[in-house]
Amino acid sequence: MKLIKDNPLSPELPNFFQELAGGSKMDVGIPDVSRREFFKLSGIAGGGLVLGLAIGSPKASAQSGSAELSTLSPYVQIQPNGRINIFSKNPECGQGIKTGLPLIIAEELDCAWEDVDVVQADIDASKYGPQFAGGSLSTPMNWMGHRQAGATARAMILAAASQQLNIPVSELSTSETKVVHTTSDREWGYGEFAELAATMEVPAPDSLTLKTQDQFTLLGRRFTGVDNHDIVTGKPLFGADTRKEGMLFATYTKSPQIGGRALSFNEDHIKSMPGIVDAFIIDEFGNPKMFNPGGGDMFSGVAVVAESTWAAIKAKRELEIQWDLSSAETSSWDDLVERAYALAEQDGEPLMVSQGFGPNATQVSADKGDAEGVLQNAETVVSAFYEYPYVSHAQLEPECCSARYENGQIEIWAPAQIPQSAETGAAVLLGIEAENSVLHQTRIGGGFGRKLASDYVFEVAAIARRMEGVPIMLQWTREDDMSGDYFRPGGFHSYSAGLDASGNLTAWKDHFITSTGNDQAPMTSADLNPSVFPMDVTDNVKLTQTMFHNAIPTGPMRAPSSNAFAFTFQSFMHELAVASGKSHVDFLMDTLGEPRLTNPENPQSMHTGRAANVIAEAARLSGYEQGSDEPGRAKGLSFYFCHSGYVAQVADVTVSANKEVKVNKVWAVADFGFIHNLSGAENQMEGGIIDGLSQLFTGKITFENGVIQQQNFHQYPLLRLPQAPELEVAFLEPEEFPPTGAGEPSMPPLLAAVTNAIYNATGERIRKMPLVDLGYKLV
Amino acid sequence: MATLNINGQTMDIGEIDPSTPLLWVLRDELGLVGTKYGCGIAQCGACTVHLDGAPVRSCQIPVGNLTDQAITTIEGLAAEDGSLNPVQEAWIEIDVPQCGYCQAGQIMSATALLSTNSNPSDAQIDAAMSGNICRCATYTRIRQAIKNAAAKMNGTAFYDAAPATEKAGETA
């Protein structure tokens, strides 16, 4: 077995994440400071933040206490009792990273997992580099850096043991949090060398020996979440659970017509209500219609500060606010739909795409070959128009955040997916130096991309400044959340594709219709990436685009753009398969062609062989090619590649005469490289499938004259337990491929797997989401 | 001075607006933040607690309507020595939580189900759990965890939400 290698950035990542990740090369987790500084930097040793210890299984808690911790690096401490603290740098939002990242360190540190306490790291780019939860990047970005961090600490412990025991390092080894001297059959806990280890020289990276895969004792097995015990006993973990002495509770009310500015409100009445401490208008800052996590951008509104959340909510309900609507949004979804369908037979403007990122980005044409010419001579041309709506993240913890401002300094407790941007953005908003903004990350009660934006953090910062010295908890209502999202944008594709006499795909044409806020570029996550399969393997591609002016705020949602494209692309591919006369599996395999990287210069571009493998295995596992004798019952297949992950899914559905759809079972086969925590990867896959099913059937946000029409779960239903299908998940783990993220690629294929199954069962082709609009009901 | 009977203790809640939902009394006045706010309209189940053993949405119960009913929250499920109930144990073993925000409500609904039916059918699990949304969609694991917890219970009730004297008068 060989060493699992480092992981360059995936090419299909949105620029946003490329920039967050710090460049085109995958960051390995070690920031750009001297190595000595990196491993010795510590605000922790000898006081400061100190960490409490749990007995039994690994879990995290933070308390004040001992100054006797031995700090080997920002990631590893040894407690006086010999237990090991491992710091988890990134926010936990349900993706399992608080368990997954420390496992990687523990492996190379050669710890027994039972001896580890996981500690949520504070925000510190100088120690931890980029800290965020997005792009399914936490695992691949930190895979090698975390292994080095573990191996470094292990080497320092061995060096200390050698010195303390006067035994050559070459005679010592490690196993399960112990230093072992085989010759004399003796062993010592790491704790016995802790103090000396913390003073040892940090070894050079090239002097470290990392484990080969067959030497792993932890990675590759199933591990349960380190916070599970605290979750099932109701301990305060989440952003909403922050409580501080003297805390007051706030609501913040914005214009229903997005972008309106508060002019005045019934201030006297609100302030006369019981429990109300203050109420005031806050002005708009920046350009909050546009997704910009680190800029301090926030909408204007009215803050109510009260002695309890309930008092603040009651007052919010009685607010009468006069709005300046001169710069508010006026778009309506129904109008955009009508205009889009009118363009179905036309081309748009040539699609230009960014090459590179940041200031070095250049605009180039996305076209290849001669799609028009090939289409004219094609044996078969298939055309179809696809539609998908705006969707809300609907994470179950509505936006909330706590902050205390005093003397030009702010301290924030935030459930934030990009805490570093939230911290600096608050400083921008408040006009203070960045170092005077300090953010503590809490567990996040669901992210799905919503909490990549930090508007709720900036709102509480602005409120806390007005209430100087008082800790403020800002709680959004569900109505605030659903009508104030950075939504997954809706859009439209008008496809034409050509097949030759052998039924092979020869040309691909797409007129993509989307929205823009600045009339220059699509809104965030509303852009077409020309590397999506099958455009990446088709010789003749013509892409055009029409942008409607519509600045309803949008942002990344789990598998940004893929969460819609997978539906349209993979449904249309099934249309082509049917037209070709081939089976769906054969058509996909023929389109993929010979096993190869689709971009030979980029090892993270789609590999057609890995794609073919997951499709073949999903078909085999599900018995896809065997039909069903039951009326109205059939299977459907879909494949998608995104975030470096390959996923094929098969859905088995039964459709009744009155369009009730029962999803009997979904099979999923993924290639995410090496799976380092099987329970975590399975959980992400299971969640992604059911998330997709929920969006497919009922997910739809609409707006009229800039006002969002859905306010709560009665108008935006989510899938419930009785509708959850049986699931079977399998992972292909080709040797030597490092792990990639599972949170996002798990979801997209589900959409077309189900709609293709409905076609196979009924003959009705589905070209728009959600299915409830076509009369279907998930049962 | 109003009091509530929560997790076997009498808790003083002072002079409080009687329209305040139990949810916000728990979270803001008593620091019992394990019970979560998700929607405020009894659609999501994140705020589920037990009232005399029955699952209720605490966002819909004005505190002024409460007298001496026994209220149990997620913080009150484990025994005094910290040992977990079979539902909590199963939740950890199956690794149910993803983000975890809804799980207090899920566990309260599941515990209430198993306290009256220690061997529920799939349909009974569906019915008992359909009021609780999990946005991370951990439903298949929730189903399995309930079955595992039921198996642990071996058909014997393990959980009494209210003192026996109060239970005696109940019919359901």
Task: Output the structural class of chain A.
Answer: alpha+beta
What spatial order of strands do you see in the largest sheet of chain A? Answer: 10-11-8-20-17-18-19
CATH architecture of the largest domain in chain A: 2-Layer Sandwich
The helix content of chain A is 25-40%
* Proportion of beta-strand residues of chain B: 5-15%
- N-to-C terminal Cα separation of chain B, in Å? 32 Å
What's the total number of strands of chain A?
A: 30
Shape of chain B: globular
Main sheet of chain A, how many strands, which sense, barrel?
7 strands, mixed
How far apart the termini of chain A lie comes to 47 Å
CATH class of the largest domain in chain A: Alpha Beta
CATH class of the largest domain in chain B: Alpha Beta
What is the C-alpha radius of gyration of chain A, as a whole number of Å?
A: 27 Å
Shape of chain A: globular
Order of helices and strands of chain B: EEHEEEHHHHH
Structure description:
- The complex is a heterodimer of chains A (779) and B (172).
- In chain A, a hairpin with a 2-residue loop joins strand 24 and strand 25.
- Chain A has 3 domains: 15-232, Aldehyde Oxidoreductase, domain 4 (2-Layer Sandwich), CATH 3.30.365; 239-328 and 400-483, Aldehyde oxidase/xanthine dehydrogenase, molybdopterin binding domain (Aldehyde Oxidoreductase, domain 4, 2-Layer Sandwich); 561-779, Aldehyde oxidase/xanthine dehydrogenase, molybdopterin binding domain (Aldehyde Oxidoreductase, domain 4, 2-Layer Sandwich).
- In chain A, 26% of the residues lie in helices and 22% in strands.
- With 779 residues, chain A is an alpha+beta fold.
- In chain A, helix 18 packs across helix 19 (749-762).
- A 7-stranded mixed beta sheet of chain A has the order 10-11-8-20-17-18-19, sandwiched between helices. In chain A, strands 13-23-22-21-16 form a 5-stranded mixed beta sheet, with helices on both faces.
- The longest helix of chain A is centred in the N-terminal third of the chain and has 28 residues, at 138-165.
- Chain A has 19 helices and 30 strands.
- Chain B is α+β, with helices and mostly antiparallel strands and 172 residues long.
- Chain B folds into 2 domains: 2-76, Beta-grasp domain (Ubiquitin-like (UB roll), Roll), CATH 3.10.20.30; 86-153, DNA polymerase, domain 1 (Orthogonal Bundle), CATH 1.10.150.120.
- Helix content of chain B is 33%, strand content 13%.
- Chain B has helices at residues 22-29, 86-93, 103-116, 122-129, 139-153, 164-167, and strands spanning 2-6, 9-14, 48-51, 54-57, 70-72.
- In chain B, strand 1 and strand 2 form a beta hairpin.
- In chain B, helix 3 (103-116) packs across helix 4 (122-129).
- The radius of gyration of chain B is 15 Å and the shape is globular.
- At the A-B interface, helix 7, helix 9 and helix 18 of A face helix 1, helix 2, helix 3, helix 4 and helix 5 of B.
